[in-house]
Write a sequence for this structure.
């Protein structure tokens, strides 16, 4: 049997102060929610490129992992750099549309990451 290998490695965005904000956000969630989101990220790692319903494009090279939790919906915004999936921002959706401030924060973090800071 052929071994299935990861197509992408996950890297957590690190702020200039050294914080891994998505990892910290994930750790703040209950374990059952972390498991669902983690499994969804793993599916992306092994199956990239994939589309809806798990992944949706947000424009400007940004993508979101769309995780359905029992009572809410979680989003992890990322971009692809080479063979890496850079996790930029995670949040629980409160509205149908992705709030502009959440998207702008992810864009800002992408710019920081690309600049090497």
């Amino acid at each position: 049997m052929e071994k299935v290998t990861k197509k992408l490695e996950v890297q957590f965005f690190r702020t200039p102060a050294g914080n891994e904000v998505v990892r910290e956000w994930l750790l703040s969630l209950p374990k059952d929610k972390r498991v669902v989101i983690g499994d969804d990220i793993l599916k992306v790692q092994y199956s990239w490129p994939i589309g809806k319903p798990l992944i949706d494009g947000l424009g400007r090279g940004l993508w979101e992992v769309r995780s359905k939790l029992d009572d809410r919906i979680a989003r992890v915004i990322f971009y692809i750099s080479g063979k890496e999936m850079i996790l930029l921002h995670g949040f629980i959706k409160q509205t149908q549309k992705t709030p502009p401030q959440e998207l702008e924060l992810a864009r800002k973090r992408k710019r920081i990451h690309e600049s090497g800071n």
